[in-house]
């Protein structure tokens, strides 16, 4: 898959009392980028639940915080699949400002049946769309 990029602007609400982005918010930015990546492929998460009976859930996160982001920064958040299983993806995600890496993360996402919360195969239609992106 090619690397997907999503712009994020830092608002006051994203920062702590020192004007630095609160660490957990980087995970929110990464979540938004993955959601927008899905949307760019034509998949809305609410429709995946309704039509396919699936959800995507975070299985694990490994984040490395390298440099701080501050109020009003314009950031780039990338998402790239680095490993694909039958029922999961692993993403490498990078949050950067002007080409400088601020935070790197590896996030494993599981495909689950919405009614049982048990792992299930990623739908073939999604796999086909992702192959077209490569």
From TrEMBL:
Residues 18-103 form the Thioesterase domain. GO terms for molecular function: fatty acyl-CoA hydrolase activity. Keywords: Hydrolase. Belongs to the 4-hydroxybenzoyl-CoA thioesterase family. It comes from Solemya pervernicosa gill symbiont. This is Tol-pal system-associated acyl-CoA thioesterase. CDD domains: 4HBT (cd00586). Pfam families: 4HBT (PF03061). The keyword Hydrolase applies.
């Amino acid at each position: 898959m090619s690397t997907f990029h999503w712009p994020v602007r830092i608002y006051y609400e994203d920062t702590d009392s020192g004007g630095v982005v609160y660490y957990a918010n980087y995970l929110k930015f990464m979540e938004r980028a993955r959601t927008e990546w899905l949307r760019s492929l034509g998949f809305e998460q609410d429709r995946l639940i309704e039509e396919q009976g699936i959800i995507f859930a975070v299985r694990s996160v490994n984040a490395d915080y390298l440099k701080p982001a501050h109020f009003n920064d314009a950031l780039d958040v990338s998402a790239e699949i680095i490993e694909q299983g039958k029922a999961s993806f692993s993403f490498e995600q990078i949050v950067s400002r002007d080409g400088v890496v601020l935070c790197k993360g590896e996030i494993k996402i599981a495909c689950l049946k919405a009614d049982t919360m048990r792992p299930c195969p990623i739908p073939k239609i999604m796999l086909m769309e992702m192959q077209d992106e490569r």
